[in-house]
Amino acid sequence: MSSDAMNDHGGDRKLWADEGLTRRLKALACTAPLHDLDIRKAKQLWLNSAQYQMAEVALQIIDHVAIAMDYDTGANHEQVLLRAAGFVGWQAPDRPADEHMRVARWVLDSLINVRDTDRGFRRYYGEVDGAGAYALRKWDFKLIEERSDSNGDLYLRASNEALNVLIGALDTDVESAQIAAEVRLRNLIGRGRLADAKAVAEQARIRTIQYAEIIRAQLDATSRNVTTVDWSDEIPELLNEALDHVDHRLQEESAIVRSVSTERDQSEDPVRKRRAADLVDILEDCVRRHTRLQTRLRGARTLFLNEQDRQQFSGTALRAPVDVYGDLLQPVLGLTLADASRPVRSFYEHSVGPTVDDQLCLATLVPALLAPSPERARFTGEEEEPELVPVVEVRGYTEEQQRVAESLLDLTDEARPLSELLEEAAALDPELPDLLVLLALRAFSPQLGAALSEGADRVLLAVSAGTPLDSQGFEGDDLLLTSAAFDRAALDADRLERNSGRS
Amino acid sequence: MTFETIADDAEAAGRLIGYGFRPKVLPVRDSAYAALVKRYAEDPDFETLVARYAAGMGLRVIAVTTRAGMVHTALPGSAFETRMDQYARQVRMRESREAERILYGITHLAVAALTFPRPEDLADDGYQGKVRVSSIDRLVRSMCRVLAERVAENEESQDPPADALQLERAWRAYERRPEVAPTKAGRSGASATLTIIGRALVHLVDRGMFHQGRTDSEDGEKIFLATHRYQVHVRELASTRAYEELTQLGVLPPITGTGTLRTTDAETLYD
């Protein structure tokens, strides 16, 4: 074979390896579980299945889950089942209600695929790789996922695959699709086609849900670690865009709600009235969702600043040699399973410390195994007499001591060092220096406001004397003490002046 | 030095090493332990004796501090070596598949990553890491999303060939796992990631690497607090060993100090 022929051959194959083809294959695969349902139903021995259209039930369930999905919750398991059972009931009204429930449960379990470890589906598709060889590849997807919220309650969510299958817009930009839906909605309402308008409003709601999901993912990554996110350009831009988007949609939707409400209130035809009412409900739900998203978006900046304060401006400049998040976790997640094995093993084995095996000793094991289980006594043992510790009386200073100390510290028009006063006090009473020191320390930062309001006419002041104190067992800086009298007249004049100035 | 004192010292050294196997006993609550830790810090001969004694048993002393007590690790091939297979038995991994173990391994990495989100936190002895099960799951899943987006940009198929599933990317294996998988009996399914993370944390609590703090007042979820021992293990040993393994695989770019995710110039935030 000549090299030219080889190239031609390869070129042909390249053409065949079309990305769009792969995409369509995957989209097709998403519908397979629904077809499967109608095939598998015949094998359910508990069920006379001819009456039931399982794919319809499945689409109902996915619809309901998608609509109930919210910013951070999803659809309640029981409610989804109840609603689906109601729908199943329409298909076979002559069958008992618990069979309807069982069918609904079976379809929901099949959509989650509870039999599978991953609770998902897999399909194989062929693709031509870079070298021109055809290879079969495995693709995993889910339709409905079970999640748990922050309270640990379970809820259901429709996967992206399910949302895309459901609304059939595989490759559209969320933003532009939203605008397109908006335009169509206004058109339809303008022409009075409310049934169609409802369908479009439902679509718009599903797109809103998708949009909220994208924002949520970005915000989550943001709150993790400020330095892992580009807060100088990328995120502020994203937040601004999102806020603009939400503001704009809120305006649009409120306007539409108003116009449809008028339609609802004024219409004579009951069918038309009900359709308008449905539409108002859906649109109001959209407004609620957008408001919630908006609140979250507005709080984002504060969250960033708080996290930044905590992470960037506190603590030491120390740094460990390895960043567990960026240097380990992230690269490991990008590896193939075969390669990832060694690093994660190594990390585990070194991060949990040494392991001690139990030492087997028959001499203690056998008696322990043979020993009868201890009987639980009905009463606890005799109560022990508690040993009482005598209360130690805390003695304050006597009034006599207080009086002597105050007379010592009555230092009008003179200043005396603390050391001198201490020696004088010690000569009078061995406990007096302690009290004197306490009073002198308080005078170091006198409470002028309190003294004034108590009506005192002077206050004791202390300043550092600049010489060391070593007297009667006290050490530190010596203090110079003096009493300063308040000039009441000047104070009153000052207050009067300030009051008149204010009024 | 008489034989008697040598024997006494050996016993003391052995006792200090023995404390290292009881991670829940801490020097602050045990005066005999505290005295041994003090002696280790002050007496170089005793330090050498402890290190040699430990080496003879197949252990390496990593740190002896008042906060963490004796922290040692098994030397390769010693009787105290921790093996992942043992862990697999202990947490009753449903299947002994390699993929299952890697998920458990990733979980342990994620626990450490969230406990010490920045290298500064890992280096700071005063830092106390806190984690919860759900936030660990969210961390890994958010990273999976980032990697998924990166793949989508490259426009090359990352689905593994049907006959070589071990070539599947680790993030895909994780992402595919359900977050919760309630069984009929109402228990959380063994395959769910939240279950895996919960078990990993309980395992770490058993080994004195974490202790269970109060539950969150708002949503009632358990909060796990890392002990100093865990920090020492991750910092001094596990992170560097895993890093070495990664460099041997050639997947890491050389460290330049810039360009990695964690470095951002502080000025740019205020310009």
- Counted by DSSP, the helix tally of chain A is 18
Strand content of chain A: 5-15%
Helix content of chain A: 55-70%
Distance between the termini of chain B: 69 Å
Strand order of the largest sheet of chain B: 3-5-4
| Total separate domains of chain B | 2
Q: What integer is the average pLDDT of chain B?
A: 80
What's the SSE blueprint?
The complex is a heterodimer of chains A (503) and B (271).
Chain A: H1 3-16, H2 19-40, H3 54-68, H4 77-91, H5 97-112, E1 121-128, E2 134-141, E3 144-148, E4 154-158, H6 160-167, H7 174-190, H8 194-224, H9 234-266, H10 270-312, H11 324-334, H12 337-351, H13 362-370, H14 399-408, E5 415-417, H15 418-428, H16 432-444, H17 448-453, E6 458-471, E7 474-485, H18 488-502
Antiparallel strand pairs in A: 1-2, 3-4, 5-7, 6-7
Chain B: H1 3-19, H2 31-42, H3 44-57, E1 59-65, E2 69-74, H4 84-90, H5 98-115, H6 119-123, E3 130-131, H7 133-154, H8 170-176, H9 193-206, E4 210-215, E5 222-226, H10 228-249
Antiparallel strand pairs in B: 1-2, 3-5, 4-5
Helix pairs in contact in B: 1-3, 2-3, 5-7, 5-9, 7-8, 7-9
Model description:
The complex is a heterodimer of chains A (503) and B (271). Chain A has 503 residues and is mainly alpha-helical. Chain A folds into three domains: 1-166, no CATH class; 172-310; 402-502, no CATH class. Helix content of chain A is 60%, strand content 11%. Chain A contains 18 helices and seven strands. Chain A has a three-stranded antiparallel β-sheet with strand order 5-7-6. In chain A, strands 1-2 form a two-stranded antiparallel sheet. In chain A, helix 3 (54-68) crosses helix 5, helix 7 (174-190) packs antiparallel against helix 8 and helix 15 runs antiparallel to helix 16. The model of chain A is unreliable at 1-15 and 169-175 (pLDDT under 50). With 271 residues, chain B is mainly alpha-helical. Chain B has helices at residues 3-19, 31-42, 44-57, 84-90, 98-115, 119-123, 133-154, 170-176, 193-206, 228-249; strands at 59-65, 69-74, 130-131, 210-215, 222-226. Chain B has a three-stranded antiparallel β-sheet with strand order 3-5-4. Chain B has a two-stranded antiparallel sheet with strand order 1-2. Chain B is elongated, with a radius of gyration of 22 Å. Chain B has two domains: 3-74, no CATH class; 84-249, no CATH class. The interface between A and B is large, with 82 and 113 residues.
